[in-house]
Amino acid sequence: MSYRPQDGFFRKAKREGYRSRAAYKLLEMNQRFRVIRAGQVVVDLGAAPGGWLQVAAELAGPRGRVLGFDLQPIQPLSGAHVNAFELDLLAPRAVERIRALADGAVDCVLSDMAPRLSGIRDADNERALELTRGALEIARAILKPRGSFLFKTFTGVDTEALLKEMAGCFQTAQRVRSAATRKGSSEIYVVAKGFKAGR
Ligand SMILES: C[S@@+](CC[C@H](N)C(=O)[O-])C[C@H]1O[C@@H](n2cnc3c(N)ncnc32)[C@H](O)[C@@H]1O
């Protein structure tokens, strides 16, 4: 399967004003699992260039609040309820910074974080696992009871072990493949709902 960077979702995103084709993954998964509702506080990890932030801001609406974080700078978004910050989410004080900015418990954590691939399979898998674990640690630290967590992981990562671990701290956790995921991509999403705080 050849790699086609400018596929239908790419063109649709350009037409509809989304910053990335990834926006359609969140739209689709939210339609199926309703992880984001109007008025909620949402934290988006690995948010650049901001496609998921745009979708989360639409779904949470002006009564909600959306905070995005990434290593890369993110161009300001329209809407006073959505803000983006530059941050290495694996840095030791990342959780404290997010907590301070969120200023209260969070309803939904999203993570579309992905490592820059080196082409060395073991190294890439290790980095992907590190990001997945980092996102899980942040979600556990900031989610309110019964909150939701939607995150990306990769087939090289032991997803069975991850799902078992998730089962301890969420009421449900399931693996999802988005229609907007490119054919041949190793990405997988996990939707976890009903955070059991204190576990
Ligand atoms: C696939 S992109 C996210 C796309 C985004 N969801 C959108 O819709 O526009 C993955 C992002 O993860 C970010 N990332 C990777 N490692 C990170 C880290 N340690 N801290 C913060 N962001 C990270 C990358 O900089 C990249 O922007």
Major sheet characteristics: 7 strands, mixed
- As for the CATH topology, it is Rossmann fold
CA-CA gap between termini? 43 Å
Strand element count: 7
**Strand fraction:** 25-35%
Could you say which overall geometry the principal axes of the C-alpha atoms support? Answer: globular
Number of domains: 1
Just give the CATH class. Answer: Alpha Beta
Number of helices: 6
What topology, given as strand order, has the largest sheet? 3-2-1-4-5-7-6
Structural class: alpha/beta
Q: Helical proportion? A: 25-40%
Q: Average pLDDT across residues?
A: 92
Radius of gyration: 16 Å
Q: Extract low-pLDDT stretches.
A: none
**Series of secondary-structure elements, N-terminal to C-terminal:** HHEHEEHEHEHEE
Which ions, cofactors or small ligands are bound in this entry?
Answer: S-adenosylmethionine
Q: Could you give me the name of the CATH homologous superfamily? A: Vaccinia Virus protein VP39
Protein model, in words:
It contains six helices and seven strands, in the order ααβαββαβαβαββ. It has helices spanning 8-16, 23-33, 51-60, 94-102, 121-142, 159-169, and strands at 41-45, 65-70, 82-86, 106-111, 143-154, 170-176, 187-195. It has a seven-stranded mixed sheet with strand order 3-2-1-4-5-7-6, sandwiched between helices. α3 (51-60) links the parallel β1 and β2 (65-70). α2 packs parallel to α3. The termini are far apart. The chain binds S-adenosylmethionine. Residues 19-20, 22-23, 46-52, 70-72, 88-90, 112-114, 131 line the site of S-adenosylmethionine (SAM).
